[in-house]
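Field log, afternoon session.

UNIT: design team B
ACTIVITY: writing a sequence onto a fixed backbone
BACKBONE:
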């Protein structure tokens, strides 16, 4: 009897898997409710629940409380992933500014298909709603709107940010928060307050090139730490690095890292925060992608495990509402007085109208609905682009399987030089981000990052073109 029941729920699970594999239910779709499936298949509710539990364990579907079961993004048809990175264990001066600026220059050219910059999909941003809110704000707060909103920034916005922090596991008050002109300014303020010229900053390897540019311009050194494309920075490697170097700060992206897409499990974040606190090394945490989790629940921030203000949390609304509004924030922890002073001296205040507009937008409670839409679309687009890379790129190509965000990190066969690839792609009207700009050690010469925020026929065609270019370079190398 027991055996028979087993086979029944397994069979139901197989049937649903089949429908997902054949596209009847796609990523983000809701599968039939437990009650409906039990009626349709004439089986008990318990059997359906067991089948759905099995599919959850296999990572095929997920349960959203009070809503139902949904198909999760699946990278099952994707080629293998890059391995954990192996950077040199020595701190290095950074020298990527020139190359990074050259690459960035092309991201403003509307004639090109932009796969190089990690820009959000404008169709997913609440363009009309936020602009309408802004114009209503300018009418309603005529004088306040043109006045300084002195540091730490709009109280109503800080209240909204503090409320949302609860979802990321953080209990904050508005006084814990300072508004900044985007996440990058927050990072810069933290680095400038904590470090002085010549100091070493530990970073993930690879990492977001603007971090490297900031480190370079401040005369700091970068120490790259091995980082796993799924679980983030290696704590053992970091401990070793700390014991053999004087590290002034760590600058990490624990949630949906750019470019790796990795997400540190919460337990690992806890361990990281505890270890850094014991060594008295501040953690500058960039959580700009934290809200863009492909599963319905966003991960916690490392700041959630902070007991003594050693974690400085930086983020913004650039990926989810409006990058051009330049509204971000910093939770400066034990560096509050210095960061507040530096912000005030360097820019007096963040622009008022956009702060007020975003505060109003958040107060109107449409943000969670918007996030659901963004998450679903990015999950789908990222899988579709990874599938295209698996199909069109040469054998031996590896691609990440991010659990959030909207970028893919791609390891090409060793014979392909990413800079040559970048130039050839540019001639074909497509931008990509070459791997070297993500490293202080001139590593990743055969890696590229692609932005997967948008998926349409034009991007599909561009992916095929990139695959042909990559194959062409490989064949040329083999013949010469
Ligand atoms: C990891 C990371 N941090 C910071 C930024 C910059 O954010 P903002 O535009 O809010 O300054 C970006 C933008 O792509 C990013 O990817």
């Amino acid at each position: 009897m027991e055996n028979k029941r087993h086979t029944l729920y397994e069979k139901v699970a197989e049937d649903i898997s089949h429908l997902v594999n054949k596209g009847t239910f796609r990523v983000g779709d809701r599968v039939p409710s437990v009650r409906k499936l039990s009626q349709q298949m004439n089986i008990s509710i318990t059997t359906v629940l067991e089948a759905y539990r099995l599919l959850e364990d296999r990572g095929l579907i997920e349960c959203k409380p009070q809503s139902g079961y949904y198909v999760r993004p699946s990278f099952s048809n994707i080629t293998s992933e890059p391995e954990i990175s192996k950077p040199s264990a020595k701190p290095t001066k950074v020298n990527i500014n020139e190359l990074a600026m050259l690459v960035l220059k092309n991201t403003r050219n509307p004639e090109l298909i932009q796969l190089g910059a990690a820009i959000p999909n404008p169709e997913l941003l609440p363009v009309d709603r936020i602009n309408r809110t802004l114009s209503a704000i300018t009418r309603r707060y005529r004088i306040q709107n043109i006045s300084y909103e002195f540091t730490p920034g709009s109280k109503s916005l800080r209240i909204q940010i503090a409320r949302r922090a609860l979802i990321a596991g953080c209990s904050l008050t508005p006084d814990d928060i300072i508004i900044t002109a985007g996440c990058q300014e927050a990072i810069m303020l933290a680095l400038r307050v904590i470090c002085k010229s010549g100091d070493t900053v530990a970073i993930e390897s690879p990492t977001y090139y603007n971090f490297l540019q900031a480190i370079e311009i401040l005369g700091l050194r970068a120490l790259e730490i091995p980082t796993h494309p799924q679980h983030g920075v290696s704590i053992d490697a970091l401990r070793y690095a700390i014991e053999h170097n004087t590290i002034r700060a760590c600058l990490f992206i624990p949630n949906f890292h750019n470019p790796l897409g990795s997400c540190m499990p919460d337990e690992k974040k806890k361990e990281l925060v505890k270890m850094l606190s014991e060594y008295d090394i501040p953690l500058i945490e960039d959580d700009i992608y934290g809200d863009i989790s492909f599963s319905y629940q966003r991960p916690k921030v490392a700041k959630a495990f902070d007991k003594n203000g050693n974690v400085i949390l930086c983020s913004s609304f650039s990926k989810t509402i409006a990058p051009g509004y330049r509204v971000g924030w910093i939770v400066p922890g034990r560096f509050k007085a210095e960061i507040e002073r530096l912000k005030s001296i360097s820019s007096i205040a963040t622009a008022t109208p956009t702060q007020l507009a975003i505060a109003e937008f958040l107060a109107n409670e449409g943000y969670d609905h918007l996030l659901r839409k963004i998450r679903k679309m990015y999950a789908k687009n990222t899988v579709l682009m990874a599938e295209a890379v698996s199909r069109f790129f040469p054998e031996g190509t590896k691609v990440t399987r991010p659990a959030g965000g909207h970028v893919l990190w791609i390891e090409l066969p060793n014979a392909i030089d990413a800079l040559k690839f970048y130039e050839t792609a540019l001639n074909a009207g497509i931008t990509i981000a070459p791997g070297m700009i993500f490293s202080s050690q001139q590593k990743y010469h055969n890696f590229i990052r692609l932005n997967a925020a948008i998926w349409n026929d034009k991007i599909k065609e561009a992916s095929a073109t990139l695959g042909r270019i990559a194959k062409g370079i490989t064949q040329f190398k083999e013949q010469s």
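LOG NOTE: The first strand starts at residue 61 and ends at 64.
NEXT ACTIVITY: expression trials, pending approval
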